[in-house]
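hiii, so i know i said id send this last week but things got crazy w the move. better late than never?? heres the sequnce for the chain we talked about at the cafe, plus the structure i predicted for it. fair warning i was half asleep when i ran it
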Amino acid sequence: MVKRNNLFIYILIIGIFGIINTEMGIIGILPLIANNFHVSVSKAGLLVSLFALAVAISGPVMPLLFSGINRKKIMLLVLGVFVLGNIISIFAPNFTIALIARVIPAFLHPIYFSVALTVAASSVSKEEAPKATSKVFMGVTAGMVLGVPVTTFIASATSLEMAMSFFALVNVIAFIATLLFIPSMPVKERVSYRAQLSILKKSITWLSIATVIFINSAIFTVYSYLAEYLESITGLSGKTTSLMLVLFGGAGMIGNILAGKLLTKNAMKSAVFYPFVFGAVYTLVFLMGKFTGPMVIIILVWGALFTLGANISQYWITSAAPEAPEFSNGLFVAFANLGTTIGTVVGGLFISGMGTHYIILGGLLFLILSLVSILMRNYMYSPTKQLSR
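okay and structure toks below
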């Protein structure tokens, strides 16, 4: 049983990595794509921005619509569409076709993400669920951290087509592994659409959504411009900055393991202390950002907190609505993406208005707001009430 559950988790990690890698990995080859299709780099950027927009739009809707279908069939459908989209992108005759081949799979992204988290949590006991979902988040971290450098390396060593083939290859592996090793998983107790939508009537759901938005805004206000910060404030070269980003990602993998342990042991305390600890790290970044040595240590802690925040956000919203796991996970995907968008915009405003150094203030502002929403939920709903609801 344990071996089977571990195999489940590993396959889900590969699947999540394949989808996140498709989303994020393309960032490193945008200049090559722009040159290949004879468009500007800013127009090529639509491959990233419209993908994210499609995810945000479909996040609350698609997991709800597919919630009653066999979960294995759903995962195969999504992975199959991603494989097909990847292949079309490789041979696309023009930019419009390439863009369509990217955006259509993006609408299915939240379905796989939601099902993967739900399946991971249901494959173990309720007490061990946070550990299982934190392992799945390793696929997210790997996709975000390894996707860009690996794809860029493949493109520079071989060709643009080979780099894009890497997206398809990972998704093909996940598809085959799912087909061969994951058993049929019909939904035994289907929850009606009305019952799932009813979680939106509860104030605890909206407080949790607010927390997800604020935490992700706090993270991405600064993270979106981390490379710029390290180069302009810390004074690092491009190569050293790349190395620091790899360290950040490696620490993020450790953060997933830490998240599983902390949320299993005491989720409420972990959520309350998170804004304080992250706020202390941001303060150190603001004070010590010009010094390379301290920044190396800070980056390691920061990377771990980055993924810890994602795990806390997911737990916070699904624990508010355990009766509708797919829908609540879909809400997590949608509003986490909204928080990412808000944080990136606010970070840009701080840079244009006050300078790169002061994006930290934007991050601290959102951390304060996240603390308020966390404390409000804890005050209004005791742990006992949360479980009963």
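btw Confidence is low (pLDDT under 50) at residues 385-389. thought thatd interest u
miss u guys!!
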